[in-house]
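Per-record layout

source: Piromyces finnis
name: Wbp11/ELF5/Saf1 N-terminal domain-containing protein
length: 128
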Amino acid sequence: MGRKSGRTKIGRSINPADAHRKQQRKKELKKNKEERKRVRLIASANKDLKKLEEELQQLKETEKDRYLDKYEKEKKKSLEDEISKVKEAREKLGIPINTEKKTSGQETVKLLGIHSSKHDKHEGKFLI
């Protein structure tokens, strides 16, 4: 039961080249998963926190006047969740939570020094 990488489900050996390709594909998928996670974190951190908080405040003001309907309650809960996610993402990335100036995704990437190997390929191509 030792080696798994060079065998199929039924126990037969597979071609070493196929086993290598399968292993490389597995590594690539893992790397892509981490990259997507990082991109989502940056996108979340760059959302307009002030706008989200204003929307939430409006719903809270409405709640003082009357009961919120089902849609408004869901909206309030989703806004609260979104605000907490944005704050958490900014904290993870080391971005100040209460910033007046909103940074773009590219600026955040430059600030944090996050650089993908995909961008390395195209970096010198477009310089004239």
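summary: The chain has a mean pLDDT of 80. The longest helix spans residues 16-45.
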